[in-house]
Amino acid sequence: MTLRAIAGSIVMCMGLAGVASAPAHAQGEQQEDPGQISLAQVPDAPRKTIQEQAKGGTVEKVERLVSKSGTVTFRAEIKHGNKMRTVEVDTAGKLLRK
Fold this sequence. Notes:
The chain has a single domain, classed as Nuclear Transport Factor 2, Chain: A (Roll), CATH 3.10.450.360. The chain contains 2 helices and 5 strands; from the N terminus they run αβαββββ. It is of the alpha+beta class. The protein is globular. A 5-stranded antiparallel sheet has the order 1-2-3-4-5, with helices on one face. The chain has helices at residues 3-21, 44-53; strands spanning 30-37, 58-67, 72-80, 83-90, 95-97. β4 and β5 (95-97) form a beta hairpin.
């Protein structure tokens, strides 16, 4: 076997191991669509709801989430004093969870 073939086999095995060890997600469970985003990147309707929920506090983190079915929601961590809370909003600005 050539060095190139061995390297290719190792890479392929590592990829399969990564897939096999990835956690299984229940249907409809939300998965992060890589990383966090800024509040400015959130569309108007959900941004307005997040800002209303943050009244008197600070939006610390915003994530764009996409379910397996393709539904997009936004999760925001809001700090009020020394307390943190999380809200989730759909693309229409409807508060799903607080």
